Amino acid sequence: MNRLRTSYPRLCLAAMPFWLALWPVVSHAQGDLPGPEIAAKGTPSGAAACASCHGAKGEGNAAANFPRLAGLPATYIAAQLQNFAEGTRQNPVMAPQAKALSARERNAVAAYYASLPAAGGMPLNKPDATTKDVGQWLATRGRWDQDLPACVQCHGPAGAGVGTAFPPIAGQSAGYIASQLHAFKDGTRPGGPLNLMGVVAKRMSDADMAAVADYFAAAKPVAQSEAATSSAREKK
Ligand code: HEC
Ligand code: HEC
């Protein structure tokens, strides 16, 4: 029990060299079709325009549970596209899109979406939250008797994401977040480095997933580097 508690940060750090080692491989090749063109028009090989589902600015479509792509780390996007193409992350809509792209095109479109700004904002925290506020409690404190760390320990304050391995989750739709938690638990989506998300999701009930999904969906996305200044920017 205690061992797991102290080893999470170390595990996260331990994974970094692998991601850094992958970076030259992922970033080296330049796309034949530029990222913005793939996003806006799709490819002759059969990928549909990403923007038709993920929005003109990569903002996603909350009603349809199409995730936001703007501001996600490039290596994360490229890895997800590879997972869809290889079928380890199972989704009937995204699989044909990802399969139609070459590795270079995946990297190009990933770099493009990573470069788009995420809107500013912060989640609302109730200062007097109790364990009954399941969403906020799990997000910010976790549940240690189950060895369930707080989501923000890996996904950063406000769920804005950390580095390239821990994607932002704030501002994705509740339906999308919950569906991904179920997918991690059911094994239809790989759990990421060291299966970190697989371990987390297996400890959550359906009600936990729904509550924490609502909590992060109510938070507006915030760029990692701008967490401190975004609320000021948003007011303009
Ligand atoms: C027909 C609609 C549609 C089109 C077109 C489409 N997507 Fe998707 N995309 C989805 C859906 C639905 C999901 C959620 C899949 C899931 O639940 O795992 C998704 C998920 C993703 C994800 C995972 C995001 C995350 O946070 O893990 C990436 C990356 C992605 N799409 C990139 C692209 C790119 C790049 C293109 C263009 C080449 C594209 N998509 C075209 C519907 C679409
Ligand atoms: C020990 C670290 C860790 C903790 C704690 C953690 N996550 Fe994650 N999470 C990850 C990693 C790593 C990924 C990326 C997985 C991948 O590469 O596919 C991820 C991915 C996700 C995704 C997919 C995002 C997307 O764009 O598709 C969601 C949703 C998510 N986490 C929600 C949560 C929630 C909710 C909690 C708290 C209950 C949580 N996570 C706690 C490490 C963690």
Automatic annotation (TrEMBL):
For this UniProt record, the keywords arranged alphabetically read as follows: Heme, Iron, Metal-binding, Signal
Free-text description of this protein's post-translational modifications in UniProt: Binds 2 heme c groups covalently per subunit.
Any idea which positions bind heme c 2?
Answer: C151, C154, H155, M197
Zinc recorded as keyword? no
Report one GO cellular component. Answer: periplasmic space
For this UniProt entry, which residues form the secretion signal? 1-29
Q: Where does heme c 1 bind?
A: C50, C53, H54, M94
A molecular function annotated in GO for this UniProt entry is:
heme binding
Q: What is this protein called?
A: C-type cytochrome
Organism annotation: Noviherbaspirillum pedocola
